[in-house]
């Protein structure tokens, strides 16, 4: 056996993500046989001592049938209503399916916001750790009913990567309806399977297409998820749900993404990968140098313009003078407060406006430099 794959076979904590298309029928009902087949694999592995976190999509898809909808609705409110109905059905099914192995599940619903706000992510981390200690299988999904369009993950691939990091998992297994990453859309003739990915250069020229009718992200979000996880030191296997047993046994199925071994903080991981800014701050070249190369906080003196309507605490993109986004950060002021601060020193602002204006626009701990600018 490939020694890299050994990491999956020997993992003592695994995050397994399964997509909608592997759990539901085209009619929008739970596919009981496929759920049971997946639980057979996970239940057996749990019984052998491995802790398992299951990140399961399928709430929206499983809500379609009960609501009499023929296809995934386009509008967010109906998707959220379907998720609300479907999530209950889904968890009920997992509860009875895992009970066949004497195992209990615990529902955990997270938003992208929870990954960012320190108090929330500390709580999520603690609850997941406790569930695992208690021998429970946490079943995680995005909290679809409260997540708004701009901020939601939409697919669970990136959420699963962040959960793998949050729980310090030994590996992430992404299960879909396709058995591997291919160099082209596998529905096209001649597409070839990638058995492993060692880094970005292995992905050059790979065509990443959209998914089927029930899934959302297609391969693009799965590859993004793999980059997030491997960048945080967690290896990833991507394969079909039907090959779950082989993947967990470390057999050569699907695509193996080798880990890179850096461990950035979870909150910043979210900031870099799971969102786009709510607005933009344009930096002069001195501020770019300070923030990107010297990892300093961003002060109002180095900002030339502000765009967008954001509130204090929101993520904003930081642009260099030609307009290219180089970093992202959690801003300390509302958009409307910023214009009068621009170009002025913090000391001058404190004297003119009061001591609360002495703070930086964005604290260095709340800034991530985007990948190509490291
Ligand atoms: N290069 C590629 N390699 C593999 N699959 C691809 C590729 N490009 C597009 N796809 C499609 O992506 C789909 C999986 O994405 P999706 O439907 O979102 O799955 P899930 O619901 O499991 O998250 C596959 O069915 C496949 O047809
Ligand atoms: N949270 C959503 C996930 C949406 C979705 O389809 O995701 P995926 O199948 O992983 O591409 C749900 O449960 O329906």
From TrEMBL:
| Domain (PUA) ranges | 279-362
The Gene Ontology terms for molecular function here are:
glutamate 5-kinase activity
User: Which reactions does this protein catalyse?
Assistant: L-glutamate + ATP = L-glutamyl 5-phosphate + ADP
User: Is Transport one of the keywords UniProt gives this record?
Assistant: no
Q: Which UniProt keywords apply?
A: Amino-acid biosynthesis, ATP-binding, Cytoplasm, Kinase, Membrane, Nucleotide-binding, Proline biosynthesis, Transferase, Transmembrane, Transmembrane helix
Q: Which SUPFAM superfamilies match?
A: Carbamate kinase-like, PUA domain-like
Q: Which residues cross the membrane?
A: 52-71
Species: Streptosporangium amethystogenes subsp. fukuiense
**Under what name is this protein listed?**
Glutamate 5-kinase
Superkingdom of the organism of origin: Bacteria
What sections of the sequence does the record tag as coiled-coil?
none
| Family statement drawn from the similarity comment of this UniProt entry | Belongs to the glutamate 5-kinase family.
Described purpose of this protein according to its UniProt entry: Catalyzes the transfer of a phosphate group to glutamate to form L-glutamate 5-phosphate.
Say where the protein is mainly found: cytoplasm
Question: Which NCBIfam families does the entry mention?
Answer: proB
Its UniProt pathway annotation is: Amino-acid biosynthesis; L-proline biosynthesis; L-glutamate 5-semialdehyde from L-glutamate: step 1/2
State the InterPro entries in the record.
Answer: AceGlu_kinase-like_sf, Asp/Glu/Uridylate_kinase, G5K_ProB, Glu/AcGlu_kinase, Glu_5kinase, Glu_5kinase/COase_Synthase, Glutamate_5-kinase_CS, PUA
Q: Identify the residues that bind ATP.
A: 17, 176-177, 216-222
Q: Where in the cell is it found?
A: Cytoplasm
**If you read the UniProt record, what top EC class would you report for this enzyme, in one word?**
transferase
């Amino acid at each position: 056996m490939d020694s890299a794959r050994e990491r999956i076979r020997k993992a003592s904590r695994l995050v397994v993500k399964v997509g909608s298309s592997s759990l539901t029928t085209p009619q929008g009902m739970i596919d009981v046989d496929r759920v049971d087949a997946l639980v057979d694999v996970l239940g057996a592995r749990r019984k052998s001592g491995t802790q398992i976190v299951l990140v399961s999509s399928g709430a929206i898809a499983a809500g379609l049938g009960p609501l009499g909808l023929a296809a995934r609705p386009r509008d967010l409110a109906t998707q959220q209503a379907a998720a609300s109905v479907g999530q209950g059905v889904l968890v009920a099914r997992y509860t009875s399916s895992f009970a066949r192995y004497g195992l209990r599940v615990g529902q955990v619903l997270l938003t992208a916001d929870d990954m960012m706000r320190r108090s929330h992510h500390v709580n999520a981390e603690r609850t997941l750790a406790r569930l695992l200690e208690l021998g429970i299988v946490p079943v995680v999904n995005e909290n679809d009913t409260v997540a708004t369009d701009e901020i939601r993950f939409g697919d669970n691939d990136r959420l699963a990567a962040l959960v793998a990091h949050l729980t310090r998992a030994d590996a992430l297994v992404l299960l879909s309806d396709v058995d591997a990453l291919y160099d082209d859309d596998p529905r096209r003739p001649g597409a070839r399977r990638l058995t492993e990915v060692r880094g970005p250069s292995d992905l050059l020229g790979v065509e990443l297409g959209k998914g089927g009718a029930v899934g959302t992200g297609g391969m693009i979000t799965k590859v993004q998820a793999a980059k997030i996880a491997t960048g945080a030191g967690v290896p990833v296997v991507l394969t079909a749900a039907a090959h779950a047993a082989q993947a967990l046994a470390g057999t050569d199925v699907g695509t193996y993404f080798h880990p890179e071994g850096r461990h950035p903080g979870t909150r910043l991981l979210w900031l870099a990968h799971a969102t786009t800014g709510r607005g933009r701050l344009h930096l002069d070249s001195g501020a770019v140098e300070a923030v990107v190369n010297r990892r300093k906080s961003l002060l109002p003196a180095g900002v030339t313009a502000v765009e967008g309507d954001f509130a204090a605490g929101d993520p904003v993109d930081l642009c260099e003078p030609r307009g290219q986004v180089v970093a992202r950060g959690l801003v300390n002021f509302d958009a409307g407060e910023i214009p009068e601060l621009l170009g002025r020193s913090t000391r001058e602002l404190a004297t003119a406006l009061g001591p609360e204006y002495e703070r930086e626009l964005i604290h260095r701990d709340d800034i991530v430099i985007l990948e190509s600018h490291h």
